[in-house]
Every structure is written in structure tokens, then in C-alpha cells.
Design a protein that fits this description.
Layout lengths: L7 H13 L2 E3 L12 E5 L2 E4 L7 E4 L2 E5 L5 E7 L11 E5 L2 E5 L5 E3 L5 E2 L7 E5 L2 E5 L12 E7 L2 E9 L4 E4 L5 E7 L1 E5 L2 E6 L2 E6 L4 E6 L2 E8 L7 E8 L2 E6 L10 E6 L2 E6 L2 E5 L14 E7 L1 E9 L5 E11 L2 E10 L3 E11 L6
Length: 360
């Protein structure tokens, strides 16, 4: 598991030390990895793109690691950034070759494989002669060879399993290579903390222990956002699709939203159609960290919609004015709504009538 016990004062001290020594501090997937090391670059140059301080590229130099005291522990001789997802071993690149190294930058064991993936916790998928298996942090094989292997785990929850491909079907094995799901499925996908297994035209949902939650359910099903309603505890959801319509379920299978046909997505809002009428909802039928309540921002009561404006601001956020329209009493009843991808929604809304020949 990741070591997240670092405090902000330590991080600031490390950044100041890097500045004094002309090191470039490299923020990788997790700033403080499970070996307690910080990745640095020596001799390179930091370049920012599009006048945005978040789009950083390191040009040149070599990569190594310093420890929490600021001393170099892994010499800066490697081609790409280094981080450890377990306390013992990681995969690094040296002279354009993948190598297994320990926390001092020494070769831990020889790479005899054609392809090597990065470690995920204590497990690494390796390939030889077009067959894949999993090795542990000491280089010992822990599974037999398969046509394909994918590691499914959640860094914030215990439990690891491997999606494996037989000669024609997919199954699931645990870290002892014991079967959890038999080789019965055309496809298995992992979206923490659930497994989605397709068999024919229908999907089955399992937990990491192989316990069946939904059998032959819907045309597709995957993880969804968490819904928060009336200040109650958040409800994790699943996104289900049936006959081209999307809707949210809770993990007990109870439908949480109406069924919608998805028309257009922007950020966390979506133009949808329900019973032939258009509206806007405040989620996008995708995994999201946003706090959502699943309601219709614009009720599904309009006959058409129109994109009035499409422009970008300096944060590269897309701004669109959406006008929803219905014919009412010889006039067009319009509801205008502005959405900003990445910056929120409901910044501008107005309700008005206009003549059919008036411009939008």
C-alpha cells in the first residue's frame, strides 16, 4: 500500500532542498511512494506548455531518488521517472532497457523477459514468447502462463486478483493462482471495486471475491458516480445500459434515476432525451469524484436544443450556452443554460419566450 504519512512541511523541505541543489523534483503518480523515496531529475530542464503551470515536461537529464533526509539514495542514471509501489523492487529504464532495481538503484534480479509491465503493489506482469504470467517483488513466478493477464486492485482497499485469458474465454484467479471465476466469459473488466463479466449479450457483476451481485443484467453495466441527496450518506451507483438508454442503479439493483438516451456530454453535465423530450442532467454517466444528486437541471420537457456559443477561456475550459426550446402558444419557450467543463455548471440560466423567426 502507498505510504501517505508525509506531512506538508517535509514536502516543502524536500522541494527547497531540490531547488538548492538544482535537482528537479518529479511529481509521479504518488509523491511519497511505499519505499519512502522522492524522484528527482538531474541535468534536465522543466518546460511548461500552453502557458499552463500544470502541463510540465522534463527535457533531458537523468532520473534518480532521494530519501526523506534529502540524500541521494538511487543515483540519477535512469532514463525515466522512478517510483515504488512496494517497499522492495520497481521497474526502471536504464540505457533504453527495462531493469528490476532495489531501493538503492542496484539490479535486484535479471530481466529475462520480452516485455515487462510496471509493478502494481507486489505484482508485475511479464511476457515471454507471447505468454504472460505474474511475478512478485523478488522475481518469483506466482502464476502459470496465460494468453493475457491484467491485475485488478484498488490502492485504497485490500484485495488483488488477476483477470486471465484462457485460449478462448476469460476468468479470474487469486494471488495463489487458484480460480475465482471459471473461464466462461467473453470479456471481464475491472472498475474498482467490482468486476464486470460479459457472457454473450448480457453482463454479470461480481465483487473481488467472485460473489455474484447481478446475473445476466442489462446490455452493459459499469461503475458510476456517488449520489448525494438531502445531505444523506453517498450512494455508490452502477451505470446500466438497456436498449440504448442509460440509468443509474445502487448496488442493491434499485434504479436511482430515470432512463435516458444520452445526446451530448460536457464535463459532468449531459444533454439527454427522455420520452422524446430534451433536458439536462448533472452527471455524465461516467465515474466521477463530483458531488452529484442525479437531478434534472433542465427538465426533460423541450422539443429541441441548440448550442449557442462555443469558446475557450485561458484555463482551456470549454464554455457552451445551450438553449432548450419548445413551441408554446405560438411562441418558442426557451431555457438558456451555460455550462463550463472543468469549472462547474449553472453559471447562467434564463427562461424567456421569443417569436419563431427571432434569431437565437
Amino acid at each position: 500500500m502507498w505510504n501517505n504519512n508525509i506531512d506538508i512541511q517535509t514536502l516543502q523541505r524536500i522541494e527547497e532542498l531540490c531547488d538548492r541543489n538544482n535537482y528537479l523534483y518529479i511529481v509521479v503518480d504518488h509523491e511519497f511512494d511505499s519505499a519512502g523515496l522522492f524522484c528527482i531529475n538531474i541535468g534536465g530542464e522543466s518546460v511548461y506548455h500552453n502557458d499552463c503551470c500544470y502541463e510540465q515536461e522534463i527535457v533531458g537529464g537523468k532520473y534518480g531518488c532521494i530519501n526523506v533526509q534529502g540524500a541521494i539514495q538511487i543515483p540519477a542514471i535512469f532514463d525515466k521517472p522512478i517510483w515504488f509501489s512496494n517497499p522492495n523492487t520497481t521497474v526502471a529504464e536504464l540505457n533504453q532497457k527495462r531493469v528490476f532495481i532495489n531501493t538503492h538503484g542496484e539490479i535486484a534480479f535479471e530481466n529475462v523477459y520480452d516485455n515487462v509491465n510496471d509493478y502494481i503493489q507486489n505484482y508485475c506482469v511479464v511476457e515471454q514468447n507471447y505468454r504472460k504470467r505474474v511475478i512478485n517483488e523478488y522475481g518469483h513466478p506466482i502464476t502459470r502462463e496465460y494468453r493475457d493477464i491484467r491485475i485488478c486492485n484498488d490502492y485504497y482497499r485490500p484485495g488483488v486478483a488477476f483477470i486471465v485469458a484462457g485460449e478462448s474465454k476469460y476468468g479470474l484467479v487469486d494471488t495463489n493462482d487458484s480460480p475465482v471465476l471459471d473461464f466462461l466469459y467473453d470479456e471481464i473488466a475491472f472498475s474498482s471495486p467490482l468486476l464486470f463479466a460479459r457472457r454473450g449479450l448480457k453482463c454479470n457483476v461480481f465483487d473481488m471475491n467472485g460473489r455474484l451481485l447481478f446475473k445476466d443484467a442489462y446490455d452493459s453495466i459499469t461503475s458510476g458516480p456517488t449520489l448525494y441527496r438531502n445531505k444523506a450518506k453517498g450512494v455508490p451507483t452502477l451505470i446500466a445500459t438497456e436498449n440504448g438508454e442509460h440509468f443509474l442503479l445502487d448496488w442493491a439493483g434499485i434504479q436511482q434515476t430515470p432512463k435516458y438516451k444520452v445526446i451530448k456530454r460536457w464535463g459532468i453535465v449531459t444533454v439527454v432525451q427522455r420520452n422524446g423530450k430534451y433536458g439536462l442532467i448533472n452527471y455524465n454517466f461516467g465515474p466521477s469524484d463530483q458531488v452529484l444528486d442525479g437531478h434534472e437541471i433542465v427538465p426533460c420537457m423541450y422539443d429541441s436544443y441548440h448550442i449557442k456559443k462555443d469558446q475557450s477561456d485561458w484555463h482551456n475550459m470549454r464554455i457552451k450556452d445551450i438553449v432548450f426550446i419548445k413551441f408554446e402558444g405560438g411562441l418558442l419557450h426557451c431555457f438558456e443554460f451555460e455550462t463550463v467543463t472543468g469549472g462547474g455548471w449553472n453559471l447562467l440560466s434564463k427562461d424567456y419566450f421569443r417569436k419563431p423567426d427571432d434569431p437565437l
